């Protein structure tokens, strides 16, 4: 019985398919490994600070100093609710974390290729969703923080539970954002992470900044008949 020879070109074709599949698997493994490595490194603020110059290096020095002087360093000093750079600079869920990882990867490439802009430009401000990952309760009526702080702004002098104010700024924020989405404030309008013009008693909020935010909100909601 005469054995038929293999069809011309069949074996090289199969080798090519196998090679492509192997290459795809390798790329997937390298990508997954890269994300896993980046995620493990971004769990350490020192890693984040290693690619940044001013002002981020100053922010990191405040953190490791031990005595909070701004809201960010307070978060890292608060062992019961310790927060790292990545915790605030990433959105909620897996999608938010992956977006932060991709942004970090892009920034790392720019850093190692010498094309990074320093000081770093804030292209993606911290959104409300980032804050609400840990502070969901602030939107509830009657909310009062564990730390009794003196809230700057309208009315002056009173604490978070002051009669007549009673957390209305958080409750009305969504109304303001709905009425004027392009110009409305956000969590960071009052709660700037790295401002040093406030004190621990005021929750590290700047009095004039909060007053301006209050005025802007009241002007819009008063026109709408809600404030």
Keywords:
227 residues, mainly alpha, 2 domains, 10 helices, 52% helix, elongated
How many E-type strands?
0
What class do helices, strands and sheet pairing give? Answer: mainly alpha
* Overall pLDDT confidence: 81
Query: If you compute it from the alpha carbons, what radius of gyration comes out, rounded to the nearest whole angstrom?
Result: 25 Å
CA-CA gap between termini: 96 Å
Question: How many H/I helical runs?
Answer: 10
Taken together, the total number of domains comes to 2
Query: How big a fraction of the residues is strand?
Result: under 5%
What composes the largest sheet?
none
State the share of residues found in helices, binned by percent: 40-55%
Please trace the helix and strand order, writing H or E for each element. Answer: HHHHHHHHHH
Stretches with pLDDT under 50, minimum 5 residues: 156-164
> What is the general shape?
elongated
Task: Provide the fold topology.
Elements: H1 10-41, H2 45-50, H3 56-65, H4 71-77, H5 85-88, H6 93-112, H7 128-132, H8 168-179, H9 187-190, H10 207-224
Describe this structure in words.
The protein is mostly helical. The protein has two domains: 42-122, no CATH class; 126-227, no CATH class. It contains ten helices and no strands. It has helices at residues 10-41, 45-50, 56-65, 71-77, 85-88, 93-112, 128-132, 168-179, 187-190, 207-224. Helix 3 crosses helix 4 (71-77). It is elongated, with a radius of gyration of 25 Å. 17% of the residues are buried.
């Amino acid at each position: 019985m005469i054995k038929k020879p293999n069809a011309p070109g069949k074996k090289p074709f199969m080798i090519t398919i196998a090679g492509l599949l192997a290459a795809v698997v390798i790329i997937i493994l390298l990508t997954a490994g890269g994300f896993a490595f980046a995620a493990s490194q971004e769990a350490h603020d020192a890693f984040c600070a290693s690619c940044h110059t001013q002002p981020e290096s100053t922010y990191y020095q405040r953190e490791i100093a031990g005595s909070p002087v701004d809201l960010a360093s307070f978060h890292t000093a608060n062992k019961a609710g310790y927060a790292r750079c990545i915790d605030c600079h990433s959105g909620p869920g897996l999608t938010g974390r992956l977006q932060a990882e991709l942004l970090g990867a892009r920034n790392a490439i720019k850093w190692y290729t010498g094309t990074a802009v320093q000081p770093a430009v804030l292209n993606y401000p911290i959104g409300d969703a980032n804050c609400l990952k840990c502070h969901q309760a602030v939107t509830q009526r009657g909310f009062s923080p564990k730390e009794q702080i003196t809230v700057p702004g309208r009315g002056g002098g009173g604490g978070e539970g002051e009669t007549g104010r009673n957390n209305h700024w958080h409750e009305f924020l969504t109304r303001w954002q709905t009425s004027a989405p392009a110009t409305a404030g956000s969590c960071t309008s009052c709660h700037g992470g790295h401002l040093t013009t406030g004190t621990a008693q005021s929750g590290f909020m700047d009095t004039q900044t909060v007053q301006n935010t209050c005025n802007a909100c009241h002007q819009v909601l008063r026109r709408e008949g809600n404030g």
